[in-house]
Every structure is written in structure tokens, then in C-alpha cells.
Specification:
By secondary structure, the protein is α/β, with parallel strands linked by helices. It has five helices and five strands; from the N terminus they run βαβαβαβααβ.
């Protein structure tokens, strides 16, 4: 049987929990399914002279953002552990916390192509006003990936 490589973009929302529940209910029993949780975070800027007096306030803000990133990375690891506790083998679950260089949809598309995933589980929150201006992430993914199955959880 062919390996099923599943990519689940994770953004720490209740909708992501629904996606994880779907993955567990559908694939936990399948020994040929590998799951990767992907979270792309905004990287912190590199500041050369952190000892300058004017940088003290910025330094505390950067420390706060760094702590937020660490908390999110830990939450992503916890989500991966929950998959293992739900029946997946520890070797079949991977959590990837990477710095975001482009928009979320592009990051997902590039990651999916680079690692040859054959299934992406995305979620969709309907009636969000910002989607009018930015477009839905799942629409961009579906349009860009023709050889990968995309499952949208609502």
C-alpha cells in the first residue's frame, strides 16, 4: 500500500482542533499514514545593537514576541502529542514550526510540494470579512496544487 503523507496546517484555533479530530477519526488506524503539523510564524527581526539605550523598550517587546513564539511551538508539540495519544505511532507524527517568509497559503503550497504530500487537511471559517480582501487560504491552495488532494473542514 502507498504511504499517505498528510499535511495539516495548524494555527492554534478551535477549527484546527476539528481538523485534528478528523485526522484521528479517519487515519489513526492506518499504519501507512504519516501526519505533519505545520505552523508558520512571523520571524523576529535581527537587531544588531541591542545595547543602545533607545533599544531597551524594543528589546522588551522582542523578548515578549520570542516568548509568544516559544509558547506556540510548545502548543504545536502538544498537538502532535495528542495525535500520538489518539493512536498514531510516534514515528508517524511530525511537528514543523517554521519562520514565515511569504503569505500562509504560499508557505503551505511550497512545503507540500517540497515534501511530496498527497493530502492536505485545511479548515475554513466562513463569513470572515478579511477573506473578502485577502482571499481564502484553501482557495489558493486548491488552485495551486493539482496533484494533491485537499480536504476542507468546515
Amino acid at each position: 500500500m502507498q504511504r499517505i503523507k498528510i499535511l495539516v496546517p495548524y494555527n492554534f484555533t478551535t477549527y484546527d482542533q476539528k481538523s485534528l479530530k478528523f485526522v484521528v477519526n479517519t487515519f489513526a488506524h492506518n499504519r501507512d499514514a504519516d501526519v505533519t503539523l505545520l505552523s508558520a510564524h512571523t520571524p523576529l527581526p535581527e537587531i544588531e545593537d541591542r545595547n543602545a539605550p533607545v533599544m531597551a523598550r524594543l528589546k522588551s517587546s522582542l523578548n515578549y514576541l520570542s516568548q509568544q513564539n516559544m509558547a506556540q511551538e510548545n502548543a504545536l508539540q502538544d498537538a502532535a502529542k495528542s495525535l500520538v495519544q489518539s493512536g498514531f505511532s510516534m514515528h508517524r507524527v511530525r511537528a514543523v514550526f517554521l519562520p514565515r517568509k511569504k503569505d500562509i497559503a504560499t508557505e503551505i503550497i511550497q512545503f507540500a510540494k517540497a515534501d511530496n504530500f498527497n493530502l492536505i487537511i485545511v479548515n475554513h471559517k466562513s463569513k470572515k470579512a478579511t477573506h473578502y480582501f485577502t482571499g481564502h487560504v484553501f482557495n489558493k491552495i486548491i488552485t495551486a496544487l493539482t496533484d494533491i488532494t485537499v480536504c476542507v473542514i468546515t
